[in-house]
């Protein structure tokens, strides 16, 4: 039994494919929670075609949306999925539901077959065991609540921070099943610019993700 939480800030161009991939999963005991954070487009309307649990927040804050979605979840396992990320296999949720680890992720794959993007995701997958998550994070709800969920002050490294807080409760697991993520940011900014962007984040944590739709 899993609760899939999808924050979505003006994601009308991507969220339908994401929701379709979730709906097609073989695992029956699941709920879909979409948190429309600061939306001004048709994202809520599209989401309501797939789930009755669509919530709207005035702020576009990502961490607030994730924590709010978790507070509405009824199942013991939480899965945080990006609105532009799809499951590659229909059995991935079943695989995740059977894991014993308190926190983990899946390997990633780009939706663009360009060699440079494939290489970027290959390198990204090699970093996953260090807690770098790839478009999806799953964790135990009781422990999530115990560690007070995502820390708003940890953005944009909120996933890394969450993994650190979970460390005393068990190992971080990487599931071999892949999720497919949009390369829109890489396409818009370029690989080199994205790398510089991340270096700046590591040096001084005051940069937000560029909004690219």
Summary keywords:
213 residues; alpha/beta; Spore Coat Polysaccharide Biosynthesis Protein SpsA, Chain A; 8-stranded mixed beta sheet; 8 strands; 36% helix; globular
CATH top level label = Alpha Beta
CATH architecture: Alpha-Beta Complex
Q: Helicity level, as a percent range? A: 25-40%
Q: What's the total helix number?
A: 9
| Biggest sheet overview | 8 strands, mixed
Total E-strand runs: 8
Radius of gyration: 16 Å
Mean pLDDT level: 88
The total number of structural domains is 1
Give the uncertain stretches in residue-range form. Answer: 205-213
Percentage of residues in strands: 15-25%
Give the N-terminus to C-terminus distance in angstroms. 32 Å
What topology, given as strand order, has the largest sheet?
3-2-1-4-7-6-8-5
| Inertia-based shape | globular
Secondary structure class reads: alpha/beta
Structure notes:
This protein has helices spanning 15-23, 43-47, 62-71, 92-97, 115-126, 141-146, 158-166, 184-189, 191-203; strands at residues 2-7, 30-37, 54-57, 77-81, 85-87, 103-110, 136-140, 172-181. The chain has 213 residues and is of the alpha/beta class. Strands 3-2-1-4-7-6-8-5 form an eight-stranded mixed beta sheet. Strand 1, helix 1 and strand 2 form a beta-alpha-beta unit. The two termini are 32 Å apart.
